[in-house]
Amino acid sequence: THVCKYKNNKNMKKLLLLVASSLMLTATTTNAQSVKAYKNGNATDYTASSLKQGDLSTVDSIVATGTWTNQDIENLSSSFTTGMFSDNTNLKNADFSNAVFTANSLSSLFYHCKALKSVVLPNTVKTDGISLGSAFSMCVELESIKNLDKLQNITNMYCAFQYCKKISSITLPNVTNNNEVSFQSTFSECNSLLNIDNLDKFTNITCISSMFYDCHMLKSATFSNVVNSNEMDAYCTFYWCDSLKTLTNFEKFTGITSMVYSFYGCKKINEILNLENIPFDEKAIEEISRMAQGG
Q1: Per-residue pLDDT tens over the stretch 24-76
Q2: 59-98 in b/e burial notation, b at 16+ Cβ within 10 A?
Q3: In 3-state terms, the chain is what percent helix, strand and coil (to 5)?
Q4: What's phi and psi for 53, nearest 5 deg?
Q5: Cβ distance 185 to 160 under 8 Å?
Q6: Using CA atoms, how far apart are residues 39 and 168, in angstroms rounded to an integer?
Q7: Are the beta carbons of 208 and 237 closer than 8 angstroms?
Q8: pLDDT tens, 248-278?
Q9: Which one-letter DSSP state was computed for residue 201?
Q10: In this structure, which long-range contacts are made by residues 45-52, counting pairs with CB atoms below 8 Å and at least 24 apart in sequence?
């Protein structure tokens, strides 16, 4: 009886070890940063840590799961192209809906992915702040970004959507953002952009130069109603926004140092902007009016 009891204890220990190993494997699998990459209907599995330059340069779609750190995002970004200045002309769709971001930077994630049409960002973001610097820059075919509003603590918007020529609407997070955030060239050359939701939630913008450069379809823009005294250059901010009809709270920027070409080509500038509220002398106001006529 004693021997049998010993054997049973030994078997129980083995069983417990197997259960523990299984649980650890499940946890690892759940949290692993994995990518299922599709090419012509055929799928290949990768882990973020194994991705190298150019690994995903020929795939047409990806589905990402697991928890993604800064290093994982960097690996993924470099895997899309074969070199620093090369284009990706194959990737069309990226789905992160079942992933979790702990990374605080998505900078240049899809930079030069020129065939990209649709991106679904995670439903869950666990980070104190996140940079979108050049994240979608040069995505000339991009039409849809879902869950962008889940990135509730953005710290940088520099060139985030530059040359996204086909995107018509962008919805930013609907929560107040008091971070110092640069919007330099953020929507530059977004020729189809009609509106931006929740731009007014950003109370501490530090740069607006070329922010809406060549946004021909843009009809309105609303900034925060909080006074912004940050010293900044407004060079080419609304250059050739010739459809612009409504501009709200622009006068809250009280630290603007230059407005060269700010409203060049904005034919209705005298109707949409109360120039009396802009902190510039008469000569500067005359220059703005002249530039608005493309002169």
Answers
A1: 444 434 467 899 999 999 999 999 999 999 999 999 999 999 999 999 999 99
A2: bebbbbbbbbbeebbbbbbbbbbeeeeebbebbbbbbbee
A3: 25, 25, 50
A4: -50, 120
A5: no
A6: 28
A7: yes
A8: 999 899 998 888 888 888 877 766 666 556 6
A9: G
A10: 46/79, 48/72, 48/75, 48/76, 49/75, 51/75, 51/76, 51/78, 51/79, 52/78, 52/79
Residue 63's Cβ-side half-sphere holds a number of Cα atoms within 13 Å equal to: 9
> What is the reported pLDDT for 83?
86
Which one-letter amino acid corresponds to residue 147? N
pTM more than 0.70 = yes
By C-alpha distance, which of 241, 178, 181, 186 is closest to 209?
186
3-state SS assignment for residue 121: coil
How many secondary structure helices (H) and strands (E) does the chain include? Answer: 4, 17
> What dihedral angle (degrees, nearest 10) is formed by the CA atoms of 87, 161, 155, 226?
170
Nearest Cα to Cα of residue 199 among 179, 221, 184: 221
Distance CA 53, CA 138 (A): 19
Q: CB-based contacts of 282: which residues, under 8 Å, 6+ apart?
A: none
Tokens standing for residue 84: 């620093």
3 state DSSP class of 285: helix
